[in-house]
Design a protein that fits this description.
Blueprint (H helix, E strand, L loop, with lengths): L1 E7 L3 H19 L4 E4 L4 H7 L5 H9 L2 E6 L3 H4 L8 H11 L4 E7 L12 H4 L3 E7 L9 E4 L4 E4 L5 H17 L3 E6 L5 H13 L7 E6 H10 L6 E4 L1 H15 L6 E5 L5 E4 L16 H15 L2 H16 L5 H4 L7 H14 L1
Parallel strand pairs: 1-2, 1-3, 3-12, 5-10, 8-9, 8-10
Antiparallel strand pairs: 4-5, 4-11, 6-7, 11-12
Helix pairs in contact: 1-11, 1-14, 7-8, 9-10, 11-12, 12-14
This protein binds 3-isopropylmalic acid and manganese (II) ion (MN).
Length: about 350
């Protein structure tokens, strides 16, 4: 397994290092050979090369079997709306150039943590759904610009039929493999692009008669996510809505530090936590590495089809939560362990179980 390691900015390097420990432990246990090559992306890449996603990084990704990604972002750029190049462009260019049109963000609850959620325990306990976010279209990539000497700005929310079809197909297929319930989230009462989504979904639904398909406006979906998270099985939606709703959904679990993701599509798949670069914690060895470790579990499952390996990582993560061997975001007044301590604990658990 040739893995491209793209730690990026902020807490990225710390959390990716812990995922690497888990991957190494798995490979030792199951007899796989693994090699890593590191490359720059985000603010650190801008500093070193002027580009947020240098060609050399892209080449490495193309030649690798999977990409393990940390985070990008730096507050320095957040408050400078005139910056010519931004760390986030690195992530967006990577998604676009690798053709990663689908972002899979599973939302699962851990029994031990249901009390950590700001939502009532009975609402959260047992919630388990998959958000499928379209990742290379919509407003993120549509024509954008300024007019009127800069006093007017626009971003175009554009979708082509083929983009909508391929992501909805994935949605139906995931629903077939799960509880056969697909929720298509859009804003078809207002947006033309959403009406195209809904039209295509209605065309496709008869091909999946076993799947119960429902349609939900995004504002309502934002409410239902916290009102009845267990309603959802598979949710599919466009890029911007998916960005927003998955941050919201991460709270159901109890901590954003637990949400993993896989970005899949045409070229090499990318595995990354959804939490971002968390600059306040960078270098402090306090960030929760579990989302990145769970992303490594998704890597075994999705990139290599190695389900047992993925399961072994999940078991170790659950054990660390059950044993309260966790970072401060999950410690709930108990002892908080450091990022690297949690990483070592998980790797050791894998080795010994
Ligand atoms: C995410 C992030 C990115 C996005 C940013 C960093 C560009 O928020 O992966 O959800 O908006 O897609
Ligand atoms: Mn986001």
């Amino acid at each position: 397994m040739k893995i491209a390691k793209l730690p990026g900015d902020g807490i990225g390097p710390e959390v990716v290092e812990q995922a690497v420990k888990a991957v190494d432990a798995i490979c030792a246990k199951f007899g796989h050979e693994v090699s890593y090559t590191s490359a720059l992306v985000g603010a650190c890449a801008i500093e070193a090369t002027g580009s947020a996603y240098p060609d050399s990084t892209h080449q490495l990704c193309l030649e690798s079997d999977a990409v393990l990604f940390g985070a990008v972002g730096d507050p320095k750029y957040d408050n400078d709306p005139t910056a010519k190049v931004r760390p986030e462009q690195g992530l967006l260019a990577m998604r676009k150039n690798l053709g990663l049109y689908a972002n899979l963000r599973p939302v699962e609850t851990f029994d031990k943590l249901v009390g950590k959620s700001p939502l009532k325990e009975e609402l959260v306990s047992g919630a388990d759904f998959m958000c499928i976010r379209e990742l290379t279209g919509g407003m993120y990539f549509g024509k954008k610009g300024r007019e009127d000497n800069g006093d007017t700005a626009y971003d175009t929310n554009i979708y082509h039929r083929y983009e909508v079809e391929r992501i909805l197909k994935l949605g139906f297929e995931y629903a077939m493999r799960r509880r056969k319930h697909l929720t298509v989230v859009d804003k078809a009462n207002v947006l033309e692009s959403s009406r195209l989504w809904r039209q295509i979904a209605q065309e496709m639904a008869p091909k999946y008669p076993e799947v119960t398909t429902d349609y939900m406006f995004v504002d309502n979906a934002a409410m239902q996510l916290v009102r009845q998270p267990k309603f959802f099985d598979v949710m599919v939606t466009e890029n911007t809505f998916g960005d927003i709703l998955t941050d919201e959904a991460s709270v159901i679990t109890g901590s954003m530090g637990l949400l993993a993701s896989a970005s899949i599509g045409i070229h090499t798949s990318v595995f990354e936590p959804i939490h971002g670069s968390y600059p306040q914690a960078a270098g402090k060895n306090i960030a929760n590495p579990l989302a990145t470790i769970l992303s490594a579990a998704m890597m075994f499952e999705y990139a290599f089809g190695l389900m047992e390996e993925g399961k072994a990582i999940r078991k170790a993560v659950t054990a660390s939560i059950d044993e309260a061997y966790v970072t401060e975001d999950l410690a709930a007044g108990g002892k908080a362990y450091s990022t690297s301590e949690v990483g070592d604990w998980v790797a050791n658990y894998i080795k010994n179980n």
